[in-house]
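Q: What structure does this chain adopt?
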Amino acid sequence: MERGLPESDCVEYKRSDTFAAKILKTACAFADNYNNRELGLLFIGVDEVDDPSRDAKAVPVRPIAGVAPESVEPIENRLKALFANVHPRVDYTLVEGELDGRTYIAVAVEPGAAGPYETSAKAEADKKIDLKAGRYIRPARDSRLPNGREEFELLRKFADFHFSSELNATATLDDLSYDYMREYMVRIGAREDTRSLPKAEMARALGLVGGASGERARDFAVLMFAERPADFIPGAYVNVIREVEGTDRMTSEVFDGPAWVQALRVPDYLEETAMRTLVLRSPERTGRRTVYSWPRAMFAELATNAILHKDYSRPNYVGIYVYADRMTFVNHNRPLPPVTIEDLNERESFDGRGYVNPELKDMFFALGLIESFGSGVCRAKHAMRDNGSPALVYEPANDADNYTMVTALIQPEFLEDGGAEAPGDKRPAAGAPSNGAELNSVEQAALAVAIRDGKVTSRGLEEEARVSRPTATKALRGLAGRGLLEWHGTSTTDGFQYYSLPQ
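A:
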């Protein structure tokens, strides 16, 4: 408070205790602790005001208004009576303090374990309080009733429910692959005697089974070691849907093996099918740098995050959509509090992040699929920045829709106009098959034009082959990357650029 901290999800200021309804719902929200804070602090006797110079809202006014010393005990008694309207009972401490030569009262509300906490109908009927009964949360600096999704998360939090820890309805030890279990043990560097354990002993050692028989598989075991987890957990797979360039068709590739195998295979597939390369030379021709349509580190981190943070109690698959100019990753659940969509757009570090699937998190870490908890978003953002790509965009912007989508736009150099800036000479380099690969019809047409006219341009190939400009450009760059054509120009915005047969 001495630093003038603005109101937040764990700090609130009130000039007096006459704001009964606001104080009550704040105390309830602090106890429900939606964002998993250590403590909620409510200050009585402190006014607040917006501070445009700091771009901050609800900053404490200094010197503080304070309360009369003789009013401290009556205020504390009224607060005690007020908090009796929260059920179960809220744990709090009243502290009298002094600042700016004036007295204030601090209410420290401890996060409860017996919740969810809610205000009573008695408070709603009290004319002095006038507060709708319900479970209050505080995702930001305002205490409010939760929407449906938030209430579900609140209930799940107090139930300490993790779908991945539950026994699967049908899967047993027999449905787990011993080969995948042993491969996992090898990959994490387990001792020889440990990775040679019989299947049943290994499963018990890893905590994969339980129940009266000791052979029912837990959901995380199914996700990690079943040949096809989706046979037992609907939606436990990744679907990569790609736009077929130059057409209105989409192709679909499903990855339905163990979750950790999905996290290994999906990035390889995206690298093979969507990733292209350009070698850029400076205008002075003194140096080169390589840029990618999308950097592998970005889609590897985002694909792994999507698999790891999926709510497997929902039947929706992880969707990855690849278009000519963008790539999107979609999960049909939101990040767990305290992380918000706004945080994902604005921050890079997420200490204390909650996990829908704590067992998967630990096993992914052991496998080296995640380097440290909460760091995947940071690495994806850095990869895009280092590649000269636009910043990642997380959606939705509202609190109601229950999904998380992140969009990665293509590096501007791969757009037809080369983006807003032209950094100098460019040489198409990769993303194409080897020289010995069969030429498609567009590539054949490009070489025919180059032989006939001595050169070929994107516009000329577009007209000759009757394809779109992006398709023509891609074919020419691919041929140049294979050494079958030579590119000439100063930049991708050069109106006189062309391709010719190599000299």
